[in-house]
Amino acid sequence: AQSVTQLGSHVSVSEGALVLLRCNYSSSVPPYLFWYVQYPNQGLQLLLKYTSAATLVKGINGFEAEFKKSETSFHLTKPSAHMSDAAEYFCALGVSFQKLVFGTGTRLLVSP
Amino acid sequence: AAGVIQSPRHLIKEKRETATLKCYPIPRHDTVYWYQQGPGQDPQFLISFYEKMQSDKGSIPDRFSAQQFSDYHSELNMSSLELGDSALYFCASSLGPGLALNNEQFFGPGTRLTVL
């Protein structure tokens, strides 16, 4: 079965610290992988996506993710956290050519 | 830039009532997706339409139905509402089906349905 696992429902960092949000996937076919961000009471905004091109993907707001097939991972990183990065982050896997399967989400908390 | 529009943004219903959620995709987008996000949960795919035809189906209850109209807007009809249907319902749209490089799904702000 195709699935996504996000390790850690909450991650707390200090402003200026490295952000690392973990995502592992299970897929029987080459995956399409995505990271979305959700601010309170808002929709999902695409941060970045992997579609079998470069394994290091750069997204918006300084985020990037590296696809590692050997580790079945697609972790999201940002070198320096801002207060405005506090939100819920979802890793998603594209399946059956259309629908997205989401992980359970990681809430990022940024303290001053 | 125009985004996906969903209406209403908030809806309160009683058990066993019906509800209709509407989604207006980004202009020229021909594919619409519906997702359900329960409290504290991840979004779950319900159903999608491409060129007014159902293109994929997920965990959508039989009490729910949906369609896409000639202007590409979509409606999700929910009958015999249950307490467990309380959730945030997202609509997304894309230009063309599939998850290829250029067929990114753009999400609307969601409709928050509360069933009392």
Q: What is the topology?
A:
The complex is a heterodimer of chains A (112) and B (116).
Chain A: E1 3-7, E2 10-14, E3 19-26, E4 32-38, E5 44-50, E6 56-58, E7 64-68, E8 73-78, E9 87-94, E10 100-102, E11 106-111
Chain B: E1 5-7, E2 10-13, E3 19-24, E4 31-37, E5 44-50, E6 53-57, E7 64-68, E8 74-78, E9 87-94, E10 106-107, E11 111-115
Parallel strand pairs in B: 2-11
Antiparallel strand pairs in B: 1-3, 3-8, 4-5, 4-9, 5-6, 7-8, 9-10, 9-11
DSSP summary, beta strand count of chain A:
11
Question: What fraction strand of chain A?
Answer: over 45%
Reading the helices and strands of chain A in chain order gives: EEEEEEEEEEE
Give the chain pair forming the largest contact, with residue counts: A-B, 23 and 27 residues
Commentary on this structure:
The complex is a heterodimer of chains A (112) and B (116). Chain A is mostly beta strands and 112 residues long. Chain A is built from no helices and 11 strands. In chain A, the strands form 2 sheets. In chain A, strands 2, 4, 5, 9, 10 and 11 form a 6-stranded mixed β-sheet that branches. A 5-stranded antiparallel β-sheet of chain A has the order 1-3-8-7-6, with no helix packed on it. Chain A starts with a strand and ends with a strand. The model of chain A has no long low-confidence stretch (mean pLDDT 92). With 116 residues, chain B is mainly β. Chain B is built from no helices and 11 strands. In chain B, strands 2, 4, 5, 6, 9, 10 and 11 form a 7-stranded mixed β-sheet that branches. In chain B, 38% of the residues are buried. The interface between A and B is medium-sized, with 23 and 27 residues.
